[in-house]
Automatic annotation (TrEMBL):
Record key words, sorted: ATP-binding, Membrane, Nucleotide-binding, Transmembrane, Transmembrane helix, Transport
Gene3D superfamilies attached to this UniProt entry: P-loop containing nucleotide triphosphate hydrolases
Subcellular location: Membrane
Protein name as catalogued: ABC transporter domain-containing protein
Domain ABC transporter: 38-244
Record field: compositional bias (Polar residues): 14-26
Principal localisation: membrane
Region (Disordered): 1-26
SMART domains per UniProt: AAA
Similarity comment: Belongs to the ABC transporter superfamily. ABCG family. Eye pigment precursor importer (TC 3.A.1.204) subfamily.
GO MF, one example: ATP hydrolysis activity
Membrane-spanning parts: none
Record carries keyword Iron-sulfur: no
Amino acid sequence: MPGSEEGTPLLSAPASSQRGSYATNSSGEDVVQMTLAWHGIRVTKPGPVDRVILDNINGLAEPKQVVALMGASGAGKTTLLNALMGRNLNGLEVTGETIIGGSSELKIGDVSGYVQQEELFLPTLTVYEHLMIQGGIRLAGLKKSDIKQRISEIMDELGLFKCRDSIIGLSGIKKGISGGEAKRLMVASILLDNPSIIFLDEPTTGLDSHMAQYLMNTLKRLAAGGRTIVCTIHQPSSRIFNMLDVVGRN
Ligand SMILES: Nc1ncnc2c1ncn2[C@@H]1O[C@H](COP(=O)(O)OP(=O)(O)OP(=O)(O)O)[C@@H](O)[C@H]1O
């Protein structure tokens, strides 16, 4: 994992990537660039004898990077991702420091979006219907025409126009969009919030190599627009490995 070796000092974020710096992405939207730094993260499962799952994990993810948390199965990739997001902890205790955008005041939930491994869609909706519902919730307050415009830009950015009117479906039960399209639809939903930091748990798992490559290209493009991307990846192909900006291993 990035900087997880014992005694590795926390790298300090360069001034250019601290809070307040903006980039304009390919759809013309301003993205607030934010560095995410973590220091001395320790995760334990409390019990008669505490079980230490992660200890002294340090790392840094900067805007325009796709940072992968790598390690063998059970190494603690998902646990670290959850610890950084402060969610899905299921009884685990986390200590250590997470600094967002150089400030200890910002809350990670306010500036980030999370693409989880499992898809949570209504299978009978089309891609466009799903995004319109999400847009109505996440962009409440905007005019319907503005929501439509934003959804159009995001569908364009994520290559979703081809399946705009396809049913989402349910894997193995009701044929719908492909696994890669479903992943990109999950990313599209969180992009409605224009997050500075995007977390993804195993985004390429279950995708064939072509779809995995397409998704990674999409993530690289989102990062190039000023976002900070942090994901877990289990056994990436060498092509995907070479697309990652920073990689850590246990
Ligand atoms: N809520 C929990 N309670 C107890 N143990 C947990 C909990 N969450 C995770 N663990 C344990 O922590 C270790 C790391 O789990 P984690 O899921 O983070 O690994 P991983 O690197 O993401 O693995 P994989 O690649 O197989 O998904 C495992 O031994 C797991 O059993």
